[in-house]
Amino acid sequence: MIIILAAATMLVLATFMACVLGWANVAFHVDVDPRIEACIDALPGANCGGCGYVGCGEYAEAVVVDGVAVDLCPVGGDACAEALAGILGVEIEQTWPFRPVIHCGATRENRLGRTEYRGEQTCTAANMVAGVQGCTYGCLGFGDCAAVCKFDAIHVIDGLACVDYDKCVGCGACEKICPRHIISMTPFKVSQMLAVTCANNDFGKDVKAVCNVGCIGCKACGRACRIFTFQEGDSIPSLDYEHYDPEEMDGLQVALQKCPQKRLLMVGNPSEKDLAATADEEVPEIVKPDFKTTVDKTQWHG
Known about the structure:
Helices cover 32% and strands 11% of the residues. The protein is an alpha+beta fold. It has two domains: 37-45 and 53-88, no CATH class; 98-277, Alpha-Beta Plaits (2-Layer Sandwich). Strands 1-4 form a two-stranded antiparallel sheet. A two-stranded antiparallel sheet has the order 2-3. Strand 2 (154-157) and strand 3 form a beta hairpin. Helix 2 (34-42) crosses helix 3 and helix 2 packs antiparallel against helix 4 (77-88). The longest helix is centred in the N-terminal third of the chain and has 26 residues, at 2-27. The chain is elongated, with a radius of gyration of 26 Å. It starts with a helix and ends in a 25-residue tail after the last helix.
């Protein structure tokens, strides 16, 4: 009898709870725009934060509800943007993928004034210690950027962070983690872009005292090509990427040749056209790590 009573009690409770849950499901139901679910399915699901949102779900909701641009996903690229545009029935304006450039080209042997550092082996910790290396602008080489990259697209080689542009999706994690802010996200209008591979804002002998390859601020590049500009008091040139025209490379080539420290380099992956054009020439090694010091997003240190 006791067992039957207990079973009946449990059945009544189960029925009651089922009714409560059924009522709550109806009373608190929130309609979800089917386009949000469609956008989530179209996104790669990497949840890298490169779009500026916490994850793909939040970005999908922002695209549908707030009208955020459909081309912010660095992992999905053009295909993802086209898919989102198709779901929402909007057109995509011309954009270019953003990729990191490291504004330092000095390996360990090129850095002067280095001292042994025995602290925590991270750039963030080393950056707080004076005298780790003579140049207070350059890459520290402990690999915070490599550690944070989910796509194995950045490595430290001979003390210098280097970008593997074949793997890089432009999520921007490396730019955010760098304590010296020498990594910047640059619009790659072509597969290879010109960049200034130094961030030292000192001049002449002060630069040579701490680095063998640093920019000495001679401003020869600015005289050779109009896209190189100098802010007041700066020795490092800024590249005007908004007016960067890959088809008008004459001035850029002159600037490349005139740079005494060879800090103007093409970064990224050469296209088939580039390779064919230089097939019979001896060209400088293409450096795959490079970019500038962090500045306002409207300024690009190339």
